[in-house]
Structure formats: C-alpha cells, structure tokens
C-alpha cells in the first residue's frame, strides 16, 4: 500500500531592518569566524526575520508573520471590515490572527483568499491604530 504524504510548506522569510525601518531585498545569512550571525552583511541583532505562513491572500500575495490583513468578514458584532495581524505561537505550533480592535485571537484557516494583505506591523504603524 502506498501512502501519499502532504508536501511540506515552502520555507521562506523576509527581513525587517529595525534601525533603517525598511525591508531588506536580498536574502542570505552568514556566520563569521567568531560565530556572529549576519543577514545581508547586517548583524542579526538589527534584523527581525519574519516567516512565510505557506498561505496567500485573495490577490495571490504571500502572507508572512506580522502582516496585517483586512477582511469583509463579520466577526461577532463587528460591522464592515476587520483588520488582523498574523502571529506564530511557538507553544501550540500554529499561526493565529489577532484582531487589531479587540485583541481576539483565532486560528488562521486556509480561507485566506477572502483576506487581503494591507501592510505589516513593522512598516505600517498607522494601520495599528484601533
């Protein structure tokens, strides 16, 4: 009997430079002779690495940790568009959406084609206003 395995999700990440406040475009990691880790020649302490969830939004854009998603779906007594951001929960090993207005957390489903990436918690601070 042959068992089919589900393909693993693609392992991808992008990097936010904390001091320069911008996404870095090239992707390589180096470890120097002293064991110091660098990303694109920047010390890793200056970088926030965010990982790809393996999901895409309604426009086909990849969804990463820290992305802000908008949705026309109603949640509870909210009316109109909701905004959530994506977090990884190490303890439970899952991606969650956190509602920017209520801080309510919910599992990230494979229905992200109903949502749209509108920014990130790193670059688009104005979207974090409740």
Walk me through this protein's architecture.
The termini are far apart. This protein has strands at residues 13-17, 22-24, 29-31, 37-39, 42-43, 47-56, 62-64, 67-71, 82-89, 94-99, 105-107, 115-120. The model has no long low-confidence stretch (mean pLDDT 82). The chain has a single domain (13-128), classed as YopX-like domains (SH3 type barrels, Roll). The chain has a five-stranded antiparallel beta sheet with strand order 11-10-9-8-12, with no helix packed on it. Strands 2-1-6-7 form a four-stranded antiparallel beta sheet, with no helix packed on it. It has a three-stranded antiparallel beta sheet with strand order 3-4-5, with no helix packed on it. Strand 10 (94-99) and strand 11 (105-107) form a beta hairpin. The radius of gyration is 17 Å and the shape is globular. The protein is mostly beta strands.
Mean pLDDT: 82
**Name given to the CATH architecture:** Roll
Q: Which outline best applies?
A: globular
Q: Name the CATH class.
A: Mainly Beta
Strand order of the largest sheet: 11-10-9-8-12
Strand content: 35-45%
Layout: helices, strands, pairs:
Blueprint: E1 13-17, E2 22-24, E3 29-31, E4 37-39, E5 42-43, E6 47-56, E7 62-64, E8 67-71, E9 82-89, E10 94-99, E11 105-107, E12 115-120
Antiparallel strand pairs: 1-2, 1-6, 3-4, 4-5, 6-7, 8-9, 8-12, 9-10, 10-11
Structure in a nutshell:
By secondary structure, the chain is mainly beta. It has one domain (13-128): SH3 type barrels (Roll), CATH 2.30.30.290.
